[in-house]
């Protein structure tokens, strides 16, 4: 790990920097997707790359997700290391066959003889009134299907370090970045979207959760926005004398159950918070893993906070009503502590 | 001139209404978004795709449609909706997220549904084409002469649904019309960089029973004319048509688009060729419509738009619990 | 409910019968999909229909799932009641956008103004060496996404009755039938694929689980094949003096949590068995629901049995190794009872 | 005759090998499946799609390919695999589910991967086309003159991936060739009932830089000839080609298919036109290959197939724990 001096970067600049470094290191790395060229990616994930690497390695595609994600698979099978962007995760439905039946399965179906060292990066998340077809995270939709790593970093530091790891990984990696954490000029400017990012190359391992705040009274598991909300709630809870431990999941597959269970063994209480739909979602998997492996550690029922199984409504207040937030987490923890 | 004067006037008034509507929306959308632009702020949050400059595509074909005909539309839907006679008050209220909106505030600008005039739209590129195929199939099964029109952008013509739909509609001779609005860009990607064909009407060659027609230079009259034939073909069971129209996107892909991918000079030169102004001159010169009558049309259009915005702004927000309703009916 | 006399039917004949009755009752009901015409559906779900209703109402389509499922949506919006077949659930990836962004969401996104009374029926399940792209159930993939009912009946009786309900329902319903439970002439003939089915019309409500075997010692939740395996295991467990209660979930969305919790309150032990992938699957949701609402009722950790997050291998022994089965359930229950 | 005699002989020997292989597979697949047919029983369980009768498509083009060229293939892959020189022992072992198979028994008949000769196939209709596009793109990026061939059935040409891939490949002038094997059926649905175009090569008209060619009557020579031109075009950077070949499916869609959707008389009349027999006569008459040499070729082909089946049958089953390996590498 070579770092030089401390500096602050937005999430998207951190990601783009990782991609640039890897493209520099390895001529097989290239980027393709819609508006990844001159536009620099709708969410800025490829900003500056075309100027540096040219349009042969930063390729704007037609609006043909099946063809260009499939092409990334074909190129990866030939030893290239494509990074392909699916603009919004919500669009997965037009190309999911390529993603889960091919990208995710070919390594296994070939008995390990075909490697697909590729990254599918995609924007997730709502909260800005983009309604039902542009606001989802779909974390579990991807994580449920075996064969692809599915990661969702929450900080600029991790966005850079995990992108580097994802590109170097010989497995297909779905890399989800949250729109609100990119530091976009046209979104609500969040403090969490800017963070310390060392210059130069470094990696953060995939598949490891992180205890981002230690506490002894309750474990709150979240990722991306819900992790930040959890931290916010934890600060408020502290004022009430409640010490919450907050875990940033960072990776959905593989899922780092050990870190969660370790924490629950200490706190004996668990709240799981997710910006995805409630049922059959991340909150279910985390809860079930604990009910399986650490049931006797629990001193109170598990609590789950997520989108209550409705599509995401457009109206701002309705959307905020269904999305998890710091207040909701705070309230649930308070209730839980009283059980 | 083959256009009946009443139609020509309707086209003018409707284009004017669309333009007023979009101009007003541009302003309303900007409210609460300066000095710092935040897509989630203001009375109209979320993405906003305006159709300013693209009016001819909408009116040229909708002039031939009735409430029984179906229109599906993509992420840039206002001009189609207005031309299809969607309830303007409810539509505007929907875009403001109000309880009185078409969808009680749950849909927003990209998800407008008015079953009374068989209009729908959606935010997924190319996804509306199969819905129009289904409406056309339903018309055929019911023995009705209804047609279904799917509006798409030229970028959407490269989505698989375009091909699948045309094959199926050609095969079954369905009353389907695909209108490709070629505004030269799919977000930042030019048509040349995305599309391996001169124009998408030529892709009719890939499907039996499918006709193709091209409209140059955003021309309302030509759009009317080729649409007339397409609608006739469809109603009489001869099969689908692809119409591509060369049109102009005056604004960014969405409001807030920095537009670094196109020359700044491009837009003024497009605006110079404005189809509404041109149509106004046609009305006066070729259709001999008195200037005063044009004034009245403009006033009516303006009034309808103003009323709609007033209605929208004055309407109530939905109650929170409604977020949990309408999932299973 | 009008039944006439007792008679035995295969799963697919029961389904086809329900469709025929509904097509008779309502001229707006029609069927489309690949090979639903002369072939009668690869799994026999539409057998005999084309002879009775003609090719205008039983429509063979090109291999264009996006177009024909999208067309079903468009037709449903016009007041028709299409039944559209996705031949194998595994193919959902080429058309998922139509399914979940449109079919499932339009009713909500239209504020309830557009109803989509349609049934998407699809074959699920493995066990006959059809490998990674033709053997999945993907129960949770569908159930996770809100706006569509997702049902998976396990018996010919329910296949008929729930199909009738699905067709009459004004909501989009995903109707999953299990290949092994269709009574196909070319598959392993299972007793469970044949069952008593009354003549004439009757309905079985969607969204209700069913206690198919009562017991006081442990609750086993399954559906389709795993429910039948659970019954098999329960019979063996009885010989050991263990009385297992077996629940047939039948519906994944809505999920009948009450029936499960009711049972756990009685047995205090829970095993959940699923033919889908383990993580973020049905076993997670059922477990989490209990850990949330009935934690103190549990006298032992919850056990989950499902496909261990690998694609389904081709080789028969490898496939059987990853699939749940009666023996595995039996073993887990025995272990659980000793905890 | 423009075919070099060595190529003509290779084509014959390879077609013979394919035919022996498929005939043998038909038998092996049947083992353990009578008197009661159970798809999951016997040494080769699961679905089985044989290509008996479709040999010319595979050999006509693979005669022009090297190990550096890529082939993607669908659910009916054996003829392509053999023509592309996939390791026959490992391929057969894979179909028998053995540890010595290409994929250690995890893939089976529909999922054969031999990276050594850049061959892959899969069970999802139309999905292999984009993979070939990607291989073609990689070749272009690496400045190699490699080509990528995607074999599909005529039914697959109505899948969206066909259109998306051709647009992208035409746009970028990729060295892609799509071979559409028109065997008249997609399972039970005839081409006429699924396809709104006379033949899919005509769909080249929908894409700039894409050529089309049609091969009648399952003719190996014509397939060789049009493939030669397609491969030349691709290698020289002129762009993609769609080749449609009229071919014949002697057997059911899969083994066990009751085939109630076609006339029983159809197949014998197809078999009468058998391309391998015809090619044998061509070799003798036009290429003056001695009958004895043909006999030797047949013997070699037979031997290779017999060896492969023996290898497969004698190989070990994988160990159970291997089911959990190769997910993350
Ligand atoms: C399947 C899918 N892919 C990508 C997008 C993102 N997207 C929204 S609009 C758009 C461009 C559409 O271009 P075009 O069809 O030409 O319509 P225009 O915006 O020019 O009206 C893109 C790429 C989407 N909504 N859906
Ligand atoms: C996306 C998808 N849809 C449907 C199927 C089921 N299916 C497998 S093969 C086939 C027919 C294919 O016909 P064609 O492309 O003509 O190839 P052929 O079988 O004739 O060789 C179908 C419908 C599938 N595997 N994938
Ligand atoms: Mg455009
Ligand atoms: Mg075919």
Task: Explain how this protein is built.
The complex is a heterotetramer, with two copies of chain A (339 residues) and two copies of chain B (329 residues). Chain A has 339 residues and is α/β, with parallel strands linked by helices. Chain A folds into two domains: 7-198, Rossmann fold (3-Layer(aba) Sandwich), CATH 3.40.50.970; 210-337, 3-Layer(aba) Sandwich (Rossmann fold). Chain A has twelve helices and 14 strands. Chain A has helices at residues 11-25, 49-53, 65-77, 96-103, 106-109, 139-143, 156-168, 225-239, 257-267, 282-293, 316-322, 326-337, and strands at 8-10, 29-33, 58-60, 81-88, 119-124, 149-151, 173-178, 194-196, 210-213, 218-222, 244-248, 251-253, 270-277, 303-307. In chain A, strand 13, helix 10 (282-293) and strand 14 form a beta-alpha-beta unit. In chain A, helix 8 (225-239) crosses helix 12 (326-337). The longest helix of chain A has 15 residues, at 11-25. The mean pLDDT of chain A is 97. Chain B has a single domain, classed as Thiamin diphosphate (ThDP)-binding fold, Pyr/PP domains (Rossmann fold). Chain B has eleven helices and nine strands. Chain B has a seven-stranded mixed beta sheet, sandwiched between helices. Chain B has a two-stranded antiparallel sheet with strand order 6-7. In chain B, helix 8 links the parallel strand 8 (211-215) and strand 9 (241-246). Chain B starts with a helix and ends in a 15-residue tail after the last helix. In chain B, 62% of the residues are buried. The mean pLDDT of chain B is 97. Chains A and C meet through helix 4, helix 6, helix 10 and strand 14 of A and helix 4, helix 6 and helix 10 of C. Bound molecules: thiamine diphosphate (TPP) (2 copies) and magnesium ion (2 copies). One thiamine diphosphate (TPP) sits between chains D (75-76, 123-125, 152-156, 183, 185-187, 253) and C (34, 63, 65, 87, 91, 94).
